[in-house]
């Protein structure tokens, strides 16, 4: 678990690097971490997985309910909701905001201990060093504008209310 925390911190640092490290930087990180992967599931893990799978439907319903609150309650003209796809399962709830407002909003949310992330880079950045940003304008625009609001068990209804309030006062 400690190695996973260490790995995630290193990965987060790489992802937040504005120079977008080239793919060769990620390989050694994953290789160094691979010794700590769980290759064989032990009985206690199997039991835990089975228990979590029985809770899967309620977990998905809770995520969808939280996403629906964001969709229905966020009405700032400075943000755009990403189109919903019927049957989608929410990992995060995505909003688009113009780049000049994004960092300020993220700062306000984080100052209030609210979970938010932005990482959604154009996949080409992970495989090519020299990227012509004009070649994939939509993916670069999306990368510069995305905000991910969390919908998992860590986010309370009060957190959602506070997030909505902050976003709507932009």
Uncertain segments: none
Topology pattern, helix = H, strand = E: HHHHEEHEHEH
> What's the overall geometry?
globular
> Which structural class best describes the helix and strand composition?
alpha+beta
Mean pLDDT: 86
Strand residues, percent: 5-15%
Instruction: Give the quaternary arrangement of the chains.
Output: single chain
Biggest sheet strand order reads 1-2-4-3
How many helical elements? 7
Roughly how many Å is the radius of gyration?
18 Å
The biggest sheet, with number of strands, parallel, antiparallel or mixed sense and barrel status, is:
4 strands, antiparallel
Count all strands and give the number.
4
- How helical, in percent, are the residues? 40-55%
């Amino acid at each position: 678990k400690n190695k996973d925390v260490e790995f995630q911190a290193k990965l987060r640092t790489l992802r937040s690097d504005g120079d977008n490290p080239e793919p060769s930087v990620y390989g050694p990180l994953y290789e160094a971490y691979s010794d700590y992967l769980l290759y064989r599931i032990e009985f206690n893990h199997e039991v835990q997985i089975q228990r979590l799978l029985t809770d899967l439907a309620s977990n998905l319903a809770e995520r969808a309910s939280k996403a629906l609150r964001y969709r229905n309650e966020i009405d700032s003209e400075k943000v755009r909701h990403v189109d919903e796809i019927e049957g989608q399962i929410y990992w995060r709830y995505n909003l688009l905001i113009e780049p000049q407002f994004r960092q300020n909003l993220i700062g306000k949310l984080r100052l209030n201990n609210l979970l938010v992330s932005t990482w959604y880079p154009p996949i080409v950045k992970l495989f090519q060093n020299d990227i012509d940003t004009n070649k994939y304008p939509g993916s670069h625009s999306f990368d510069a504008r995305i905000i991910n609001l969390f919908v998992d068990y860590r986010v309370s209804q009060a957190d959602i209310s506070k997030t909505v309030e902050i976003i709507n006062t932009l």
